[in-house]
């Protein structure tokens, strides 16, 4: 495979042309793909045609496939659309319903910025999302760079966040923040260093970062509100407009993602795999 890599915005996202993700890349190609992912935070490969097995094999380039995050007691009929072989691993992101119930997860509407599984001790490393049916308009996935956001902080704010820890939590099944106690949470460094690149990332998101340890509530809320606005500054964002056949891989350590609203009458179906990471390393 001969790859050509084009940046999509100054800070985040690159499109890679020349990848056929249904085939196993040779060692040099695999390295080039993973390096582009590490450098750009999100890689986009258009025009793919993938079975579950092929997507799972490609996802394996970015780590070990993870179990789905869904708490067992919350499992619904919803995942019967999934093939048995990957029942523990794959997740359909879709608004398609059978007998009135969504056949997958995260069905409707817009979604606040977050990174996947950050409320666990071991957050997701990569998420590999493949578009099967996509709306004509809306339902874009937005990505913000946490490394660019960290670099762009003024020195005073860097001094405030450096060395801090924050509670990352999640209310199962929600796309917007709630004020009650999260179902799952874990305290992680607010600034983490990425071992492969040495870059520092501001590890926070509007949906999941609940509070900063060692600060009183008002102080923590005010600083977090300022950090969320900074991270979501349009200059750090890539907005992905989905087409069927799009394959995206994002790094949950160096990017956060959210979703724009879309017409509930339109069908949206994406297939997701994720890989496990390591405990975030304080910067
Ligand atoms: C996800 C997710 C956003 C989208 O799959 O983790 O946040 O655009 N999806 O559906
Ligand atoms: Mn997500």
Structural features, described:
Helices cover 18% and strands 30% of the residues. With 283 residues, the chain is of the alpha+beta class. The chain has one domain: 4-Layer Sandwich (Double-stranded beta-helix). The strands form 5 sheets. The chain has a 7-stranded mixed beta sheet with strand order 1-2-3-16-8-18-4, covered by helices on one side. Helix 1 (27-40) links the parallel strand 2 (14-17) and strand 3 (42-45). The longest helix has 15 residues, at 217-231. Mean pLDDT is 91; it is low at 69-85. Bound molecules: N-oxalylglycine and manganese (II) ion (MN). N-oxalylglycine (OGA) binds at residues 93, 106, 111, 116, 127, 129, 141, 257, 259, 270, 272.
Concise structural overview:
This protein has 283 residues and is of the alpha+beta class. The protein is 18% helix and 30% strand. The strands form five sheets. A seven-stranded mixed sheet has the order 1-2-3-16-8-18-4, with helices on one face. Strands 7-17-9-15 form a four-stranded antiparallel sheet.
Could you tell me the number of beta strands?
Answer: 19
Q: What's the architecture, going by CATH?
A: 4-Layer Sandwich
The strand line-up of the biggest sheet is: 1-2-3-16-8-18-4
Named CATH topology: Double-stranded beta-helix
Radius of gyration: 18 Å
Q: CATH-wise, what's the superfamily?
A: Clavaminate synthase-like
Give the fraction of residues assigned to helices: 10-25%
Q: How big a fraction of the residues is strand?
A: 25-35%
Classification by helices and strands:
alpha+beta
- Total domain units: 1
Alpha-carbon distance between the termini?
A: 37 Å
Question: Strand-and-helix sequence, N→C?
Answer: EEHEHEEEEEEHHEEEEEHEEEEE
Any low-confidence stretches, pLDDT <50, length ≥5? 69-85
Q: Which overall shape is indicated by the principal axes computed on the Cα atoms? A: globular
> Average pLDDT across residues?
91
Attached small molecules: N-oxalylglycine, manganese (II) ion
The CATH class assignment is Alpha Beta
Largest sheet: 7 strands, mixed
What is the tally of helical segments? Answer: 5
